[in-house]
Design brief:
The complex is a heterodimer of chains A (425) and B (81). With 425 residues, chain A is α/β, with parallel strands linked by helices. Chain A has 14 helices and 21 strands. Chain B has one helix spanning 22-28; strands at residues 4-9, 12-17, 34-35, 41-42, 55-58, 61-65, 76-78. The longest helix of chain B is centred in the first third of the chain and has 7 residues, at 22-28. The relative contact order of chain B is 0.28. Classes of the chains: A alpha/beta (425), B mainly beta (81). The A-B interface holds A 38-40, 45, 76, 78, 93, 111-112, 114, 121, 123-127, 129-131, 133-134, 137-140, 223-224, 253, 351, 354-357, 381-383, 386-387, 409, 411 and B 17, 19-21, 23-24, 27-28, 30, 32, 36-38, 40-53, 55, 61, 63, 67-68, 70.
Chain lengths: 425, 81
């Protein structure tokens, strides 16, 4: 018999990155709070393995603040269903966890957008954030030749990180056109902290070519990547590498808010000034309301935490800062939008759905994701379209579909346990 | 190897650094995590629990995410589903 765990909290925070941590910090003095994350530790992607960190790290003060609260930390839990009013079901290696709440704060973050090109399924072609996460999880990269490609500010951050771990960063290739990026650079004058960060990365990467308007067209290798060909539309360049770290900016993890019925707008959760979603008692913060990075996540998480416990006055004090962060998020969304040329990257035989190995040429015969799913199994594998969904939306213009539970693969015995009546003791 | 621990991968005992995830261990060993439905070897893609490319069998439980599981001494990892 597997384990069954039940809890009830005033405020339940889903997601242990900066937005979730800030929300828990703001709510905890006034309520019974739990913060839930699927990883072995809090910190999210940006603070992976640096929570707790040395005091000088930006996460240090937040760690101290969370330590001073009574907030419960629940690690290694993956939420897969919202079966009843104010109830979530999660799975952990030890079995089913039933989480009840009065207020729910969702801070489920973002994932990388992956776009298919020939060779992208070779081993060691990995997300840019993905490779960073691997290094933070113990992968040594000293002396490894790494090409960083795709789109977004994450590329420079990852390249600087890899270099600081001894990697030989061969090049950083940003797909955004130079004019688009120049416009973005001008617009961030209003955000001095972003400029100093960008300057810091460029200084760390002094000897590394930063190619703007270049994108990968083919990764070469037998079973793992050996080189990558890139283009700027006019010229081609092939670089040898041990890893290709490649992601095309970020897309939000909206599966759980969508399951709860929260309205989405342009792919992000729609929220009011207090971070409340369209569903009562549900607040959303961080990347799921718009890709804005650390500052926006901390501000929105704080507002959601305050608002969820009726502290509207400290929440309102953060509105001006949030508006500024939202301006930066909007500028990023425009600057790092994938260029139309990327739609022509997949060859007929290129795998688009990696779970079910569905090729581009098969998908081109369909006019909707539903049709493609029914006939090819695209999006029907264990990732449930989390990887290919962003790609098929971009490549074929297929919008996402309504989401059904379980939103993650779950073990049968966990589902069976979840079906049992609750009060059986 | 400092602070090495022993796990088994496909039945063979191997040494890996302590504190690393199973995904990192398999990458260090140059071992694919899984074989795709058409027979291609695959390794981690997202490394954050989204893509399921790194799923392996750990201690006889299938479909565990290698990127979110830390190696512990004696752990049995199988990359053959």
């Amino acid at each position: 018999m597997r384990n069954r765990n039940e809890y009830t909290y005033d405020v339940l925070v889903i997601g242990g990155g900066p937005a979730g941590i800030a929300a828990a910090c703001a709510a905890a003095p006034h309520a019974r709070v739990a913060i839930v994350d699927e990883n072995p530790a809090l910190g999210g992607q940006i603070w992976r393995n640096s929570f707790p960190a040395r005091q000088s790290h930006p996460s240090g003060p937040w760690h101290n603040r969370l330590q001073q609260t009574q907030a419960t930390r629940l690690h290694g839990l993956r939420v897969f269903d919202a079966p009843a009013f104010n109830t979530l079901h999660a799975e952990a290696p030890d079995g089913l966890h039933i989480l009840r709440y009065n207020k729910l704060i969702l801070a489920t973050g973002a994932r990388e957008r992956f776009l298919p090109f020939p060779g992208w399924t070779l081993r060691n072609v990995i997300g840019a954030g993905g490779l960073q996460a691997m290094v933070k999880s113990g992968l040594p990269v000293a002396g490894k030749r790494i090409v960083v490609a795709g789109s977004g500010p994450l590329l420079l951050a990852v390249a600087a990180f890899l270099k600081s771990h001894g990697a030989q960063v061969v090049a950083v290739c940003e797909q955004a056109p130079p004019r688009q990026l120049a416009h973005f650079a001008t617009s961030i004058v209003a955000y001095p902290s972003k400029i100093s960060q960008a300057v810091q990365y460029r200084t760390q990467l002094a000897a590394v070519p930063y190619r703007i308007g270049w994108w990968p067209v083919t990764a070469h290798g037998k079973s793992q990547v050996e080189s990558v060909t890139l283009t700027n539309g006019a010229r081609r360049l092939t670089l040898d590498c041990d890893f290709l770290a490649c992601g095309f900016h970020l897309v939000p993890n909206t599966e759980l808010p969508a399951l709860l019925g929260c309205s989405l707008h342009n792919g992000f959760v729609a929220v009011d000034s207090l971070q409340q979603a369209s569903v009562p008692n549900v607040f959303c913060a961080g990347e799921i309301t718009g890709i804005g990075g650390l500052d926006k996540s901390l501000i929105e998480g704080s507002i959601a935490g305050y608002a969820s416990t009726g502290q509207n006055s400290p929440a309102r004090k953060l509105f001006a800062k949030r508006n500024k962060a939202l301006g930066f998020a909007a500028a990023m969304e425009r600057a790092f939008a994938p260029r139309p040329e990327l739609r022509r990257l997949p060859a007929p035989q290129t795998t688009v759905c990696r779970c079910e190995d569905v090729a581009h040429e098969l998908l081109q015969q369909h006019d909707s994701w539903r049709s493609a799913k029914l006939h090819t199994r695209c999006g029907m594998g264990p990732c449930q379209g989390r990887v290919c969904g962003a790609a098929t939306e971009f490549l074929y213009g297929w919008p996402g579909e309504s989401i059904r539970p379980p939103i993650l693969p779950v073990r049968f015995d966990t589902l069976a346990e979840a079906e049992k009546p609750t009060a059986q003791h | 190897m400092p602070d090495a621990i022993t796990i088994t991968v496909n039945g063979a005992p191997v040494q890996v650094p302590s504190g690393v995830t199973v995904a990192v261990a398999l990458t260090l060993l140059n071992e694919p995590c899984r074989t795709s439905v058409t027979g291609q070897p695959r390794g981690p893609l997202c490394a954050m629990g989204i893509c399921y490319e790194c799923r392996v069998t750990i201690d006889r439980i299938s479909n565990r995410l290698a990127c979110q599981t830390l190696c512990v001494p004696g752990m049995e990892v199988s990359t053959h589903a």
